[in-house]
Each structure stands twice: as structure tokens, then as C-alpha cells.
Write a structure and sequence with these properties.
By secondary structure, the protein is an alpha/beta fold. The chain has three domains: 11-129, Response regulator (Rossmann fold, 3-Layer(aba) Sandwich), CATH 3.40.50; 138-236, Rossmann fold (3-Layer(aba) Sandwich); 241-340, 2-Layer Sandwich (Transcription Regulator spoIIAA). Helix content is 38%, strand content 21%. The strands form three sheets. Strands 2-1-3-4-5 form a five-stranded parallel sheet, with helices on both faces. Strand 6, helix 6 (148-155) and strand 7 (161-165) form a beta-alpha-beta unit. The protein is globular. The two termini are 33 Å apart.
Length: 341
């Protein structure tokens, strides 16, 4: 049986650029390949990360405030930092050529696409890049209005897949494939929605079109691809929770503040699915919540729900939380093992 969620990221990448859009584009292309992407908006922030964590690779912009790319690179090379650097460039200029001589592994012209990023990974990582298989989030459109499935397909990133079905056929697909999103059209009745959500317990449940009902929100329809894409990418299509090797890991939050409650809702749902899968492999599991937004009430609710599920599954859990949250969660210590990391 195929695992419902991917394994925890095996590699860590630092994306250093003063443009949030560029960092988000890198993450959208790298995260599906199994990379954890850490964001730094300038060289000074990147330096703090590099002093405390090891990275397999860093994508470094040339011109940034506070500390620019060449200055950071000189500092790293003077201190013999082994991090492999890929220079992000807008155009081939004399400053680019001079920076490359400081010791970069490769460079990536902007704007970039999936093919360009993959080519850089192949050149820089060599044999390590051969095993990079993209995560394939799946969307199931159930009883959708005419044209909606095709529009959604155009809104999805290249590594995502979409199926369209009605009635009993949708139930069969949901039992056989690990969907991240179930998009219900107005024709999907309550009994069908309930059956599908049981078959796809990790999925986000979204309505599609006027009159469509679902528990996690709605996708506007009719709407162009860029409007459909906005509610899908920050949380629904990302795995959010990964599992493997007696470890369950929650991904960082990406999106607008208004989308944070959905992040925690889906995280709780997918955490439960991950624990059910982990009991096949281990009796004790580490649950890493350090990347969650530091919202003590929301993190506390995650721990409570996971702890109850673990008792039912005969699992022993240890929760890792971000420094600073441990004290605010002290009330849980009598029932759960909670440690700062």
C-alpha cells in the first residue's frame, strides 16, 4: 500500500533573496523533491541560519540589502564554510562573473522554471540528485460544474495530478489514491461527501462553485487559474505532515495570515493519518512541531488531538516544540512528553 504522506525532507536548502516571490517560487519547485526550504530575505539573515544549521545547498541572490551576495560569499569562503552555493542572477554581468570566481557551485538565471532548477540540482548534487522523485499531490473533482476540472488542472503546479469523477466512481478513486484535495461541486450530496472524506482522511475538503458545500472552505468558480491557485498552494496541496523512520514532522506555514487556521486544521488531520501509518513501523514516535507558527493554543490543540489518537493506537509520542513554547505548554507536561528543540 502506498504511504498517504511523504517521508520527512532528507535535504535542507537555504533560499536567500530579498524578493518573497522568488523565495516562494524556489520552495514551490524544491519542496516537492524532498527539500526543506528555509527563507532568508538578505545576507545577514542567511548568515544567522548558516551559523546554526547545516545546509546541503544555498541559492544566493546577487543584490540584496543589509548584506549582499558577494559580501556573504566572501565571508563564507574566508571561514571555510562548505555550503554549496548557487548564484541567482538576473543577467550575466561583470559583477556576476566576479562573484562566480569567489567560489560558487553553479548559477541560476532569473526567471527560472522547474527544468532550470532540476538541471542545476543535477549538476551540483551529481549522484545525489538521481533519487529525487517529486511528490505528487492529487486533487479529485467530484460532480464539478462544466469546465471546472480543466480550469483547476491549469491552476495546478506541474508535479500535481487531477482526477474528475462522479458518484460511485469517485468513491472507488478515493479508496485507491491518497488525495490531498477533494473539490465538491454543487451536485455532490452529503452522503457522498461523508463517504469520500472517510476514504481520504488527509484531504482538504473544498466546495467548487455556487451552492457547493464542504468543511474547509470554497474555491471560486468561475475563476481564472491564478485565482483558483491562491487557496490551493499555501496549504492544501503541500503535504504539511511527513512521516518515516519513527518521526513525524510538521512543515512550516506559508500563506496569508487568514489561511493559518486552515493550516492547523489540515495539520491535525494529516498528523492523525501519519500516526496511523507509523504504528506499522514503530511503538514510539517523535512528533516534530518546531516549524509550526508559535501559537500556543493551536499547538496545544495539536498535541492534545495527537495524544488522544496515540493512546488509541498504542503509540508513545514525544513532542518537539519551538523554543519559547515549552513554558506556555507546561500544563501538558503531566500527560505528554513535550521538549523544546
Amino acid at each position: 500500500m502506498q504511504p498517504p504522506l511523504p517521508a520527512p525532507p532528507a535535504r535542507k536548502v537555504l533560499a536567500v533573496d530579498d524578493s518573497a516571490a522568488v523565495r516562494a517560487a524556489l520552495e514551490a519547485l524544491l519542496e516537492p523533491l524532498g527539500f526543506e526550504v528555509v527563507h532568508a530575505e538578505h545576507g545577514a539573515a542567511a548568515l544567522q541560519f548558516l551559523r546554526t544549521s547545516a545546509f546541503d545547498l544555498a541559492f544566493l541572490d546577487l543584490e540584496m540589502p543589509v548584506l549582499d551576495g558577494p559580501s556573504l560569499l566572501r565571508f563564507l569562503r574566508q571561514h571555510r564554510d562548505p555550503t554549496r552555493i548557487v548564484l541567482l542572477t538576473g543577467a550575466e554581468t561583470a559583477s556576476v562573473a566576479a562573484t562566480i570566481k569567489l567560489g560558487v557551485s553553479d548559477y541560476l538565471p532569473k526567471p527560472f522554471d522547474a527544468r532550470g532548477v532540476r538541471a542545476v540540482l543535477d549538476r551540483v548534487l551529481g549522484d545525489q540528485a538521481r533519487g529525487l522523485e517529486p511528490d505528487e499531490p492529487r486533487v479529485l473533482v467530484v460532480d464539478g460544474p462544466a469546465g471546472a476540472a480543466e480550469a483547476l488542472r491549469g491552476a495546478l503546479p506541474p508535479h500535481a495530478a487531477l482526477d474528475e469523477a462522479r458518484g460511485a466512481e469517485a468513491e472507488t478513486l478515493a479508496r485507491d489514491r491518497p488525495y490531498r484535495v477533494l473539490a465538491f461541486g454543487p451536485g455532490a450530496g452529503e452522503e457522498l461527501r461523508r463517504a469520500l472524506s472517510t476514504s481520504a482522511p488527509a484531504a482538504a475538503l473544498l466546495g467548487l462553485g455556487d451552492g457547493a458545500r464542504a468543511g474547509d472552505g470554497a474555491l471560486p468558480w468561475p475563476a481564472p487559474p491564478e485565482v483558483l491557485r491562491a487557496p490551493l498552494l499555501p496549504g492544501c496541496l503541500r503535504p504539511l505532515v511527513s512521516a518515516g523512520g519513527a518521526r513525524v514532522q510538521l512543515a512550516s506555514f506559508r500563506g496569508e495570515p487568514a489561511q493559518e487556521p486552515l493550516y492547523f486544521t489540515l495539520a491535525a488531520r494529516r498528523l492523525h493519518v501519519a500516526l496511523e501509518w507509523q504504528r506499522r513501523e514503530a511503538a514510539a514516535v517523535v512528533v516534530d512541531l518546531t516549524r509550526a507558527p508559535p501559537r500556543s493554543e493551536a499547538v496545544s490543540a495539536l498535541i492534545e488531538e495527537a495524544g488522544i489518537a496515540a493512546r488509541d493506537l498504542s503509540l508513545e509520542l514525544m513532542f518537539l516544540v519551538a523554543p519559547g513554547l515549552e513554558k506556555t505548554l507546561a500544563g501538558l507536561a503531566e500527560r505528554f512528553i513535550v521538549r523544546a528543540s
